[in-house]
Amino acid sequence: MPRVCDGLERVRLYIDDVIVFSRDGAEHVRDLERFFEPMVKFNLKLAPNKTNLGVKVVTFLGHQVRAEGIGPDPEKVRPLREVPKNKKNAH
Asked: 4-14, pLDDT tens digit by residue?
């Protein structure tokens, strides 16, 4: 997969996880077309249940990626936020 994505500047991959990011909708369509061309050429498949297209916020490798920046996945930090503030409330 790394060679398939060579030259695609707004594509990042980690093992079998891929993210395509863009500044706006028109650019995103072009970036997705460039990404899908070699996928089709080399008969590579994507898992539909792991595929999100055209979304503004996505969780990728435990981080939430959005236009404003990258931050931790809220579900990953939720247990830390729910830690009791004093010993009396701890179970």
From this structure: 788 888 899 88
User: What are the residue boundaries of the structural domains of the chain, listed by start?
Assistant: 1-54, 55-91
| Beta strands at 69-72 and 63-66: parallel, antiparallel or unpaired | antiparallel
Is the Cβ–Cβ distance between 31 and 22 less than 8 Å?
A: yes
Please tell me the pTM assigned to this model.
0.71
Shortest CA distance to 21 belongs to which of 62, 65, 51? 65
Instruction: Find all residues with CB under 8 Å of 51, minimum gap 6, and list them.
Output: none
DSSP-based three-state secondary structure for 52: coil
